[in-house]
Structures
1.
Amino acid sequence: MKIVLVGYMGSGKTTIGKLLANKLKISFLDLDEVIEQGLEDSISNIFNGKGEIFFRKKEHEYLIDVLSKKEKLILSTGGGTPCYSGNMETMLNLADHVFYLKVSIPGLVKRLLLEKEHRPLIKNIDNGDLPEFIGKHLFERNNFYLKANHIIECDDKDPESLVAEIQELLT
């Protein structure tokens, strides 16, 4: 079984992915980590040094590679992954389940304010401007996210109950 988690940064893809992988006793991969290991560099260095077009091309290649090789896995993607290079269609074709972890704008703001320093995309955005920034991004990305097989509403739910909700949809 191949499961892919998509959603905006801070939506819980890595947290939920690791918990779910543990419950199902299958491997968990974070696509950004796979790319960093493969290219032996950090995502921010790749973006800054070689540009977004290079990064998106590599992201697409690694996505196909991971989903073509592994028999059973849970894959957490970057927030922008579904929006480029036909990646959402690739995920829908090569994975058994694609879950969109949907969090409201206020929910994302609350989560991301806590980890802003570790998020290069939003690190330099004023706290007051964060809701508008996230809202604009979500508007641009939502059409891709909504193509997922399953949409999981994540606001006000703890990770364990979200994992249980996903497990129910797998049976």
2.
Amino acid sequence: MFEEVSKILVVDDETVNLELISAIFIDSPNIMILTASDGLEAMEVLKNHTPDVIVLDIRMPRMDGIEVLDALKSDQSTSHIPVVVLSGDEKERKNALKHGANDFIPKPFDAEELKLRVLNNLQVKKYQDLIKNINEVLQKEVMKKTKELREALELAREAEYEMVVKLGMLSEFRDEETGQHIRRISHYSKLLAQLAGLSEFEQNILFYASPLHDVGKVGIPDSILKKPGPLTSEEFELMKLHTVIGGKILTSDPRFITLHAGKIIAEQHHEKWDGSGYPKGLKEREIHIYARIVAVCDVFDAMTSDRVYRPAFTVEQTLEIMKKGKGSHFDPQLIEIFFNNIDEFIKIRETFRD
């Protein structure tokens, strides 16, 4: 059985870049490279082809990259296609993200980094398509109301969770974390939601969506993600963009409840109760309850785990530090519930050890 061919559209007015990027994928037989020398030509190509990823230059004659982005994201038939922008200007890259770009590559680009970023976005697209297809099939099957359907629903839910975990791991394995971190966050979040009085429906939403909290890290360079020392202010500004990138990746039809909740969590889990977080500086109950719950769970797991820049803290040290964030970093009610039930969270940590 032949593996499906993935299409990558490269749009750049510099012929040498089109040739170089095409050459980067010459050893990938299941990837077809389509090229366009400017935005207008790209729109013509899109009339006959639906690419899986678009690599897009910003500065081009006739129709520049921002105009192409606006056209792509306003059209339902192309809005779901991941777009990786090429630019040597930081302001241009941030502007492109605001207009719907999913990722960026600085110019002049490193060939290996470009290939890895494009392949990462291609993998994310495949998982999104798979989850979407599963949900569409289930919506049709639910009309049958049979025992066979109930069994299929249970299996599909388990499969969805595994796909969400794998999607989360696309970023985590580059951050030297494991699938166990993803599973711990999932179980922590459901437990804290239960203790906070959320409905069983919302507990399950958090269980399935919380693993997607850091998926936007696929768009952060390894030089920042794996840096053994503290980040510079410029590097930290780039790191903060993983919340924006995660939201772009997970943007979908609201009917896909897991992806919609994952988008909220990815965008808001670094917001803080006192408004000093990012990316939007939301405060108190402006921050969605899902994100407030994941914020507590993510900090606890991060601090009690080894990182490239420091060894793990003990549980006692971690709790002492987290107490100082009550009412500033964390929702004061949620953190109090967490402290009062810490033994249950430690049991989860022991069950899903790295």
3.
Amino acid sequence: MIIESKRIEDKGITWTLRCPTKSDAAELSKLRFKIDGETENLDREPGEALLTPEDFEKIIYEDSIAEKTLFLVAEVESKIIGFTRCEGNKLSRFRHKAEFGICISNEYWGYGIGKTLLENILLWADTTGIEKISLKVVQANRKAIELYKRYGFVEEGLLIKDRIHKDGNYYNTVVMGRFVDK
């Protein structure tokens, strides 16, 4: 699905929220690789499960025509600095739910971009008829967990020793969900 672009001014920066286009594919591929190396809050090490520009072109096209999928980018001065993707489930038994993730280049953490991406995903989900939206968060990322809780997410479960970080230690993953009563 495609939504209209928005210009946002917050915390001293102006940025654009929009859906990606085919011409963004190479930049998104590079950004995803970069962000994977900036934080251990995401699932991948740099270069793992690499998405090429061609992969992104396909995702952008498929998401633009899908009824229950939304892909948004955050752009500062014509440079994509973050994105979120919410994907609905195509299986009949799970058509009421969607899963999402957010990633932002660390130089733009603290500007409220993640919060705005989240708000727009939730607004879209609520108007699209998605009754459950979920995500997974490394338990050590307390700031993200608290943000999601402020927006109505609850902790549904804990995956014990779910991941190993560069420090050699195991970390738990929190499964979170937000429900719309129907």
